[in-house]
């Protein structure tokens, strides 16, 4: 996995976790859902890169 793309996925996951936590703390369900979605997007990006790495080797 390229370092840059891996880092982007991790940043996206971290931002999502922050949003989710902020949503929980404030009782904002929309923010919580946005955070979960952003984490899922980061997870998907990371999985895609891992699959690409498997086929490169």
Fold and architecture overview:
This protein has helices at residues 3-26, 29-56. Helix 1 runs antiparallel to helix 2 (29-56). The longest helix is centred in the last third of the chain and has 28 residues, at 29-56. It is built from 2 helices and no strands. The protein is mostly helical and 57 residues long.
Shape by Cα distribution? elongated
The average pLDDT value, as a whole number, equals 91
How far is it from the N-terminal to the C-terminal residue, by CA?
11 Å
SS-based structural class?
A: mainly alpha
**What is the radius of gyration?**
13 Å
Structure keywords:
single chain, 57 residues, mainly alpha, 2 helices, elongated
């Amino acid at each position: 996995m390229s370092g840059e793309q891996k880092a982007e996925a991790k940043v996206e996951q971290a931002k999502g976790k922050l949003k989710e936590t902020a949503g929980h703390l404030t009782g904002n369900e929309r923010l919580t859902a946005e955070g979960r979605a952003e984490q899922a997007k980061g997870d998907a990006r990371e999985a895609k890169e891992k699959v690409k790495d498997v086929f490169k080797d």
